[in-house]
Amino acid sequence: MTVVFEELDYQETPLGVISLRRRSEPRLNNQILYEIKLDDEFLMSSLFTEAEIQLSKICLAALQGDELDVIVGGLGLGYTAKAALEHASVRSLKVVDVMAPVIDWHQRGLVPLGKALSADPRCTLIHADFFDVATSKTKGFDGLPYQESAPHPQVHAVLLDIDHSPGYWLNPGNSAFYTEQGLRDLSEKILSGGIFGLWSDEPPAADFMALLDRIFESCESHVVSFPNPYLGKDSTNTVYLARKA
User: Fold this and answer.
1) Distances 207 to 171, 203, 237 between C-alpha atoms, Å
2) Hey, which end of the chain has fewer CB within 10 Å, N or C?
3) How much is the pTM?
4) Are 167 and 194 found together in one domain?
5) CA torsion angle 16 21 24 28 (round to 10)
């Protein structure tokens, strides 16, 4: 049996060493997997993508309108972004990622969805700190300063898939976003009736739901199940959906 293992890229970043690898999985009939690691921590695998896809599907299905402007925080392997572009009503999609190498992988076609995302005229990949631009009162999601004479642009949906959960962060500095002030700052950038969606690796958290309820008109959680061949049973992630009044 031939086992393939390739490290496609390996770069140092302010948050640690990020790497992209492609390998065959002997336990799954040599299925080819793409994996992203930050130092020794696994960030994403192409084997487990259902919840990332459902983040887009669940949240965008809750919106009405034909010309939706959507933000995705966190590019990863691109599954949330690709699912958003499959929604016929999406007019524009901005994907914000703090990791320049991840954007580069997509633009160079090193990951399976990279060429499709890069070629779609509705999609813009932005190198910026999502948590900075999402809460900034002086600049937009593109990282550019607001023009004083122009109204601050708002979007219909913000979909976030960066940290493991609202209480388990890749970077301790992200924690300030998951507070009442951080989420209120974000809500100002969402249109009335718009959506904030969040992926989490953990079960729904009552305290975070209560926090969302204080800021948004309504909130709900969706448990997404998917097969886990390593465990021989289903695993679950959570998608939070909060709607602005």
Assistant:
1) 21, 12, 17
2) N
3) 0.96
4) yes
5) 50
